[in-house]
Amino acid sequence: MKSVRSLAAGAALVAIAAGWSGAALAQETVTVWFTKGFYKGEDDALLAVVDKFQKATGVKVDLSLYATEDCVTKSVGAVQAGTPPDVGFCTTYDFRTTGQWAFEGKLEDVSDVLEPLKAQIQPQALATTLLMNDKTKKKAYYAFPVQQQMMHITYWKDMLEEAGFKESDIPKGWDGYWDFWCDKVQGALRAKGKRIYAVGHPMGVAASDTFYSFLTFANAFNAKVVDENGKIVLDEPANKAAMVKAVKDYSNIAQRGCTPPSSVNWLDPDNNVAFHNRTTVLTHNATISIAAKHLDDMNNQALTQEQRDQAKKNYYDNIRTAEFPNKPDGSPMTNLAAVKTAVVFADGKNKKRGKEFMAFMMKDENLRPFVEGSVGRWFPTTIEAAKAEFWTGADPHRKIVYKQYTDGTVPFQFVYNYKFTTVNAENVWAKAVNRVVQDKISPEQAVDEMIARIKQIAG
């Protein structure tokens, strides 16, 4: 953990001049917990926001930065103990806790802050923070949509060329796409005596990559799991049939020997590692962090000039970020987006200032540098930031991410039924795939088991 604590002078006069309601007492404090950035630029941008907020309000920001897992674990413990910070932002809140906390009344309603900002925020991103409170029996905005991620295809262009193919040879259709990589590309490389797999295909039950990747396949087949009221609809005939096809297709990549056998046990970093080691040609990943590693390396003065030059060549020439192929029905893929949420806790000691801090953070001049500090790992939630040259310019990876978002996004099931955070944590999706691949049961039986377990958890 890293703590940052400071106090601006001239508090009351600066606060009044900045237009904030009420003169802040010199020692007034707001407690803020954030996930520590993956890149230094994220933390630097956050510290700049903290400094500006303190100078504008005279309020001391007691900021703590935690590693990803520590951040959510500590937050859950603090909420259970009734001693949460005023503001929390952990990059796994959305997957694990935000919906449940809102349902249980553990979060402050922030509609008064978000309503005036609605026109500035991408509608789908904003929709994921409209959550049900079981105490009030109605939905309201209980979180701030800070940044978002989605699934991308990443492949080695030079390995594709080594196999004897050009990028223009890659099919646009669903079946043809996977057949191309698994049969033609892998086959050509194997013919050269190389033990290389075409696809890094996460299947480990303990990996969030697996459920994100699998649900992308389910989305491709239009398999609807819940409706907007949170009711499970996966057992409806059309949805069940679509889910069977998704399980069959996801399993088939392993069954045809197109992914390393170890992928059934992969954790989240393992598909990245296999790609960087060039034992796979392609992988799907929920951020462009694979390419961004090489961007980071090419500017890393701790590396040799030769290493930096190779990283630059990898980023601009050898590695490609791409969209998923069209859906099996021929329509363009609508991408599954995960919106990373910040919250103000209902039991926070200074939640009023917590709201003010997040209102300040959500201003474009503050939020944009924070999101861009991740060098493309996270995408903006605001309309104007998404149009920035950072995304629409010449960068070969970010411009693809921009196109994916403009093509349209859909939310995860847990937005409508918070119990799907447990469904994902248990990874019923990966279990179904592994039942087919390892236990040799039919996709139909695997989906029957999946539906039964989902109903037990979230019905």
UniProtKB/TrEMBL annotation:
InterPro entries: Bact_solute-bd_prot1, SBP. Gene3D superfamilies: Periplasmic binding protein-like II (3.40.190.10). Residues 1-26 form the signal peptide. Keywords: Cell membrane, Lipoprotein, Membrane, Palmitate, Periplasm, Signal. This is ABC transporter substrate-binding protein. The keyword Membrane applies. Belongs to the bacterial solute-binding protein 1 family. The keyword Signal applies. It is found in: Periplasm. It comes from Bosea vestrisii.
